[in-house]
């Protein structure tokens, strides 16, 4: 750790041990290892960079032992402990260096390929800066976001949509969230993010044009927390005037909405919430749909008031927001707060845990994948600082600042991006509520602002608690407010203060280092830092010049800032790196000049406020000089104070919300097509398919693949076929001709089948995965037979959800003894298409032999960021490279492109999955190329379906809920023990699940799930009251399982 004063004593002890290292009476531990010099190793490896903070306690205990033999033995063991830890750390560092080198090479290759596909016809535009900045003086600066007046912003916001009311949905899942008396610091999940999202919702709810803001979080009924966290709804007290509140309806304003998900009686940490996210998404979706209808009626519209955006906070809420935005087809906004890859790097640098150990503790790989998903789905990502973009987000596969700049310039110039996309990164610093903040004038001699005849207010108790430490409390106060954490660099600050005599003569130092009772009860890291600070105070004899109170309340913090301002002091944040620096804004609002680290968010804050100095946190002398300069130069102090107070409004909530709404309303609105007026007359009755069922011309859907021994030319590549493909395999994929509906959408009176989805008492979804469509249909038939034995069987509907194409299903229906009319819907090609069976001819006015109707509204729904031909070309190149690498083993190609018959599914046949890279590598490569898609390993590892990023079988069910009103609570999903790589999405949610035992699950698990980024149990709720196992796949076994779920048999 930085400033280990115990190192000298430790080194002396090791030197004592080193003297007799080769003698016969030396310990067996050392004799077995041969000649080894602990002192030399310590100097070379430990002092030069290895930093293990908890060794101090071990050394202190060992040094206190009087028995020299036992003492030496303990110190020898510590030497070997250091050696083991250092070796482990070195190994981790080498692995990470190799990983980073590969990632850099892949990114450069992807950038070259993307650039080659996109002509350089707008080079000047591509030189624009990546992110905008706030200008403290309001001028337009190249590469910076110009200061825009409040009037201009709101004019741009309201004018194009003067009759438009905005409905915003914010999501923050973990921690304890309530509007008043927030328990900040109660645990690691209830911190600054909780305060931020509550204040953001409250501030947005008070903005003109915003009708309602919902902050969605988890409902917690645990006896371990206050009862208020179990209340379904909590209204946030508005910040605006009563006049604005009169403009909104009875449901307007800002609310906390608590959605029940996960165990109802347990308060869960964020690391164990992942398996329950689908349940939250389903509950949130139902709330939003219901609220949209209510708000639409309140504003006098015949359409629901759809959310203008869904905004996720942190990775878990970001994953949820991605699913919700896909189901609702609305823009998504994301704020990371902290990022998983950055945390993973920091933990690996410590060298205490391997990647697997970190993942086991923090579920870090699941979190990182969630953050990659937010990059896939987000329209805008809001950051607090440029540092977050340039040093944290660039660690992700899905974001490359260079490629993002090129793509944004092309979009701005209305030039094709060839299917590539990256979200817009914008810097909008967090806001503060300044209504009750008054800059402190006067000094401690009694000069106060206001009427001299008014009685003086008593000093806050916290002032006396601090000033009791000082010999001369009227000297300017240097204030630091941070945890005693090595990253906060407080030890260097104390050294800088202690070694600068001029600074000690002019100022006092106040360290607010959290709350403590007994040092020994603190964590080893925090106590080690605090002990080092106390020793430095003793070393430099700083008694009477440094204050370090043991306790303070959150409500005392404003008083502490006021005290520092009254003494004409300075606030300092010397952290090695500071992601944002909210305390710098709080200090600036009270008129305190600042000295801050030059690494991270303080750079942006200083640029906006211009109220202090930036320093290198590693340079002790630089810190001392900056503090001395501000304390000694009163003119500079006054100038910094005035500049900070002048520009602090840039960090106010109104300013934050204006910039926020400008970005949100600038997103392209893509509401569901059936709710938009696109020139096509829609059926006025909500129960009718209306324009949802379009014509796709008569298709034979014969698969253009080379399993017949021919060569299929695709682009510039030729992928050879398989001469030795078994006959039965070819038969399975041959398609019989299909006929689809004509362009005229059937009226409700002519087609009574489609409203049935909303009126079904239960909907059975057969989502069993297999390499044989016949096996899937056999199970579907057994499920139907079990359904017939249930009460109200006539009100039970059936949906087939599979990775097979409609053509492949159709060719096997008759052989399985089933008809298309037995099903309400078919979810095909891993969720990239939805088909509905047409009514019998007797129920139609014409005699056309139409079998199926495709839901083209669903295709428009999932078309978001679909790469089309550019994506297909990249996939072909990938397949070609895999085939090329595998040529040494076999001349036959490993991967062959198939014709899925779908415009939103690229399908590939896998001859040998052991020769194909893991699916995560394909997804990673597509993300690096800025191509957003969702690859699915299916059919027992024999196929790969690449579909749109917002499509999946689970999302298709949510679409049916949104489009047709199919109640998800009434859905029963039938799954196998294992399945396709999208299996996890079907497992969670509010629906009930029947797991069918047996089959080829072990084989599928080995082929498909062995190379996951994270274990399946990290995302699948293994124990749920809505899940039952079925030991047999016949009608009797399935019926018994349905009985356990409460679907009572007669």
UniProtKB/TrEMBL annotation:
<dbReference type="InterPro" id="IPR023214">
    <property type="entry name" value="HAD_sf"/>
</dbReference>
<feature type="compositionally biased region" description="Acidic residues">
    <location>
        <begin position="679"/>
        <end position="688"/>
    </location>
</feature>
<feature type="region of interest" description="Disordered">
    <location>
        <begin position="715"/>
        <end position="753"/>
    </location>
</feature>
<dbReference type="Pfam" id="PF00534">
    <property type="entry name" value="Glycos_transf_1"/>
</dbReference>
<dbReference type="InterPro" id="IPR012819">
    <property type="entry name" value="SPS_pln"/>
</dbReference>
<dbReference type="GO" id="GO:0046524">
    <property type="term" value="F:sucrose-phosphate synthase activity"/>
</dbReference>
<feature type="region of interest" description="Disordered">
    <location>
        <begin position="439"/>
        <end position="460"/>
    </location>
</feature>
<dbReference type="InterPro" id="IPR001296">
    <property type="entry name" value="Glyco_trans_1"/>
</dbReference>
<dbReference type="InterPro" id="IPR000368">
    <property type="entry name" value="Sucrose_synth_GT-B1"/>
</dbReference>
<dbReference type="Pfam" id="PF00862">
    <property type="entry name" value="GT-B_Sucrose_synth"/>
</dbReference>
<dbReference type="InterPro" id="IPR035659">
    <property type="entry name" value="SPS_C"/>
</dbReference>
<dbReference type="InterPro" id="IPR044161">
    <property type="entry name" value="SPS"/>
</dbReference>
<protein>
    <recommendedName>
        <fullName>Sucrose-phosphate synthase</fullName>
        <ecNumber>2.4.1.14</ecNumber>
    </recommendedName>
</protein>
<dbReference type="InterPro" id="IPR006380">
    <property type="entry name" value="SPP-like_dom"/>
</dbReference>
<comment type="pathway">
    <text>Glycan biosynthesis; sucrose biosynthesis; sucrose from D-fructose 6-phosphate and UDP-alpha-D-glucose: step 1/2.</text>
</comment>
<feature type="region of interest" description="Disordered">
    <location>
        <begin position="673"/>
        <end position="693"/>
    </location>
</feature>
<comment type="subunit">
    <text>Homodimer or homotetramer.</text>
</comment>
<feature type="compositionally biased region" description="Low complexity">
    <location>
        <begin position="735"/>
        <end position="744"/>
    </location>
</feature>
<dbReference type="GO" id="GO:0005986">
    <property type="term" value="P:sucrose biosynthetic process"/>
</dbReference>
<keyword id="KW-0808">Transferase</keyword>
<comment type="similarity">
    <text>Belongs to the glycosyltransferase 1 family.</text>
</comment>
<dbReference type="Pfam" id="PF05116">
    <property type="entry name" value="S6PP"/>
</dbReference>
<comment type="function">
    <text>Plays a role in photosynthetic sucrose synthesis by catalyzing the rate-limiting step of sucrose biosynthesis from UDP-glucose and fructose- 6-phosphate. Involved in the regulation of carbon partitioning in the leaves of plants. May regulate the synthesis of sucrose and therefore play a major role as a limiting factor in the export of photoassimilates out of the leaf. Plays a role for sucrose availability that is essential for plant growth and fiber elongation.</text>
</comment>
<feature type="domain" description="Glycosyl transferase family 1">
    <location>
        <begin position="472"/>
        <end position="644"/>
    </location>
</feature>
<feature type="domain" description="Sucrose phosphatase-like">
    <location>
        <begin position="782"/>
        <end position="986"/>
    </location>
</feature>
<keyword id="KW-0328">Glycosyltransferase</keyword>
<feature type="domain" description="Sucrose synthase first GT-B">
    <location>
        <begin position="167"/>
        <end position="391"/>
    </location>
</feature>
